[in-house]
Amino acid sequence: MDGYVLDARLTTLTAIGLVPEGARIDASFVGAITEGPLTGGIVEGVNYLLMRHDGSCNIDAREIITTPSGTGIAVSATGFVVPPPGLLSPEAVMDADFVWPDVDLALHGASRLATADPELRAANATMYAFSGVANVGAGRLCLRSQAITSLMSEVPGLAEDIDRLPPAIHLMS
Prior knowledge:
- The chain is mainly beta and 173 residues long.
- It has one domain: Porin (Beta Barrel).
- Helices cover 11% and strands 54% of the residues.
- It contains four helices and eight strands.
- The chain has helices spanning 90-94, 151-154, 158-163, 167-170, and strands spanning 3-19, 22-35, 42-52, 57-66, 72-82, 105-114, 126-135, 140-150.
- The radius of gyration is 18 Å and the shape is elongated.
């Protein structure tokens, strides 16, 4: 699988509060895959966001893609949201009167997928890069995820070795 496009809406923002590293916010989202081999899949997830004191945000997201055929794919993503300098601060976003601006914030990072579906097994050994925008004020998240490397194609014989493993180990490959 080469990649996909996600179009999602933010459903819930839960302010965890100020921690020594910055502000912790859990951002739940739900959306759909609109391009790629998983088109029509539904995505649900949570980004355990950390807004650092310099205003940038660490992405630590977990999500589940459910394909139209019912296959489950776990996604683990890490990266950064990069707002314009001075736009956001941890203290400001934790203020009770704070209103998120209607501004597209660039985001980028990497993700890993895990699935037990034998037709998608190559995704278990592939890193994906993603980029896009998050607009908290408008409640939107849009990103494109693209395969950047696949061990299945780079290591001779790896695909055949994985095929010989018991199914329980397939889940971890």
